[in-house]
Structure formats: C-alpha cells, structure tokens
Amino acid sequence: MSTAGMRRGGTTLTLLGLLGLIALYWMAFFWVPTEVNQGVVQRIFYIHVPAAWTSFLAIGFAALASGMYLWLRDERLDRAALCAVEGGLIFATLVLTTGPLWGKIAWGTYWTWEPRLTLTLLLWFIFIGYFMVRNATEDPEKGKRFAAVVAIVGAIDIPFIHLSVVWFRSLHPEPVVARPDGPTLPGDMLVTLLFGVLVFTVLFFGLFLFRYAVEGLRAEADLRARSAA
Amino acid sequence: MSTYLSQVWVIVWKDLVLEMRSRERIAAMGAFAVLAGVLFNFSIDTTTTRPQDVASGLIWMTLIFGGLLGVGRTFHLEAQDGALQGVLMSPAPKDAVFLAKTAANFVLLYVVSLLVLGVFGLFFGLDLGPNLGWVVVVLGLGALGFVALGTLFAAVSTGTNMGETLLPVLVFPLLVPMVIYGVGTTTRLINGRPFDEVEGNVRMLGAFALAAVAAGAVLFRYVVED
C-alpha cells in the first residue's frame, strides 16, 4: 500500500473508530441496563475490557511483525512492530487507569496484585523495555533487532506470566464471555461489550495506519536527507 | 551432533577456566550473596516475623540480584578487546555459542545459589529435613531459566550504550513466573509440606526454563550479528 493509501485507510478507520466510540459511550452510559450488584461503576467495564483486549492484540501483532522482520529484514515490518507497540502502550495505559478507578469502588482499593491487572502492568513494562532498547543503540539497525527480540520474548513469556499470576492470587471478576460453557453476561451487556471490542480494534488499526504512514514518511525523509548530503 | 556438543563444551570450558583463574564474577556474586544475607537478617524484626516465613523470598531475590551481577558481565570481558568477534566467527553455530554461555553462567549461578541456600539456612535457622533434595532441584530449575533470559539480554544490553543498567528493566518483568513458582515452591518445601503439593509448580518452573533456553537459542543469532 502506498503512503497516501495508508493515510486514507488510517483516516477512514480512525473516523469510524471515533464515531463508534461515541456510540459506545452512549450505549455504555444510557442504553445498557445498570448491573445489579456493582451499580453504575460497572459501566467502566465496556471501556476497560476492550482496551485490555486491544493491548494484548498489539503485543501479539508486534511479536509477529518482529519475527517476520528478523526473518525477511523488511523495514516495513519493523515499522509495523513499532507502531503496534506504541498503540499497545496507549491501550495498556488505559487499562491501568480504568482498572484502579473501578477497583477503588468495587474492591475498596486502587491497586491489588490481581492477576489480570498484574499481567497488564508487566505487559506495560515490556512495552517500555521495547522503546528503551530501541533508543539505546548508536546503530539504528541494531536497535531494531534488539527491540524485535524484546517483543518476541515478551509475547512468549505472556502465557507463563498469566498462569503464574493466576496461581498467585485471584480477586478479579471471573471471565464472563470467553468461558467453556458460553457467555454468562446478559444480552444487552454482551452486545455493548462486543461492540466495544470491535470499536477499539478498529480504532487501534486506524491509529496504527496513521503512525505507520508517518514512520514511512520519516524513513523517506531520512533517505532524501542522506542522499542530499 | 557430537561436533556440536564438543563446540559447546569448548566454549563452556573456556569460560569456566577464565572464571577459575580470575574468580572475578564468582567472587562478586558470592560476596554479594553472603552480605545480602547479613543485611536481610537486620531487615527482619524477629518479634513480628518468623524468619522461616520470608526466607525463601529472600533467597530468590538474592539469587536474582546476585545473578544479574554476574550474568550482566557475561560478554564484558570479551567485548573489551573484540574477542567476542573471534568466538562468533568460529565454526560453532550461534546457538551453540548461546547454549555454551548459558551453561557456563548456569554453573556459576548454581554454585552461588547453593551457597545462598547454605548461608541463609544457617542465618535464618532453616530446617529443610527431607525436602533438601527438592529445594536443590527447584533452585537449579530457577537458575536455568534465569541464566537463559539473562544471557540473551546481557548480549542485548552489552550492545547498547546503556550497558548493564538496561538489563534489569528488560529481564525483571519476564522473570515474574520464575519468582512466583520458585518462591511458592520453596516456601512450602521449607515449611515441611510434601512434594506432591508443589509438583505442578516445579513442572511449570521446568517448562519456563526450557522455553527460555529455546527462545534464547533461536534469537541469540539476531542479537550478535553484525
């Protein structure tokens, strides 16, 4: 895809995502019924869970692109991984802010070492490590390879971290959708949640394409500056 | 296969001979471990906490911090005078180099972790009884997972201009499974619980170590290439 096409795609998806976000807020605040036990605070769930889904999608996507980069050495794959990690960092930050806000009311404390919250925090640190490694080398090619290794090892480690933190302690509400015996969430809530997941995924890819186009332009500008010099 | 193993062995032997002659890393790690044990002793108020309850956590944290000290310098000596290039240009494949470096680090760290176990056992008055053998195995599995990740990311951090300071930032989030399973298992074993109770955790620790070694062996070549 050309850079212009990328920008068009990014604009379209981001606009769609933003429109969807408005609809999602409307649904979460006005349409969906209030949950009986938790009350109004439960409505943050429709933002929290889709953001979490997106941040894990991002690390998977970044690890895949990184692995392909190490194999094929196509600059575009490295740029894709970088943009996915940036998006993932934003959505993971969203999870880490909405989670404690909800937790303060539902659990009575901002932070607990609850497995899924812990997992997201560690994912956040893996994303940070990705950027630190990338920016800490004099040779940018080296930084790209190192960052790719961080993304891949991080993605491999995620299941282990997940299992171990679950074993360590569990306070978090049990999954209500991805269960072996089918979702337990009432219809309206399930619809809102799934719509939220869709909106956040679209928004993620919209922002991703935007960033990706910018990185492409930057690489092109670098190339021109170097050939002019 | 046998040439592969002998290539691994040559590098392991080289590293261990270097270490035996200089005693640079093992002395630093060993001294760190013992002194950490002394400081930890003063960090516990025995009127409120039983040392046995927290000993295994302290053992594992000492292992990790002491391990970083040694593992972070894996490539230090060779990076100084470009000797690493020589090792990498040898006919040994890159994964053999990684496995050898990991094995040599493992020997060092395992010696230190047994020292930690002995010293902390003495300082905190631990009575391991029949579980001693399993604690030794669990420490070995934890040390293996740690050195595999540590060696891979030591190669990464040596190549950056932040050097060893970057190593904990990269490795600590990844080490969480090892800490959880390691400490959980060791605490129960120290408190005389039967091995059956922790068998699943020991398996997970083994799986984590295997995955770390495999990932390192595959990815190491991309870290050290030029």
Give structural notes.
The complex is a heterodimer of chains A (229) and B (226). Chain A is mainly α and 229 residues long. Chain A has helices at 3-31, 45-72, 75-106, 115-135, 140-168, 187-228. Chain A has one domain (3-31, 42-217). Chain A has six helices and no strands. In chain A, helix 2 (45-72) packs parallel to helix 6 (187-228). The two termini of chain A are 29 Å apart. By secondary structure, chain B is mostly helical. Chain B has one domain (2-224). Classes of the chains: A mainly alpha (229), B mainly alpha (226). The A-B interface holds A 70, 118, 122, 125-126, 128-129, 132-133, 136-138, 142-143, 145-146, 148-150, 152-154, 156-157, 160-161, 163-165, 167-168 and B 149, 152, 156, 159-162, 166, 169-170, 172-174, 176-177, 180-181, 184, 201, 204, 207-208, 211, 215, 219, 222-223, 225.
**Main sheet record of chain A:** none
Poorly predicted sequence stretches spanning 5 or more consecutive residues of chain B: none
The H-and-E topology of chain A, N to C, reads as HHHHHH
Percent of sequence in beta strands of chain A: under 5%
**Rg measurement of chain B, Å:** 18 Å
Question: Largest sheet of chain B at a glance?
Answer: none
- Total number of helical segments of chain B? 10
- By oligomeric state, this entry counts as heterodimer
Which term fits the overall shape of chain B? globular
Categorize the overall geometry of chain A.
globular
Radius of gyration of chain A: 19 Å
The helical percent of chain B reads over 70%
Which structural class do you get from the secondary structure elements of chain B? mainly alpha
Record field, number of beta strands of chain B = 0
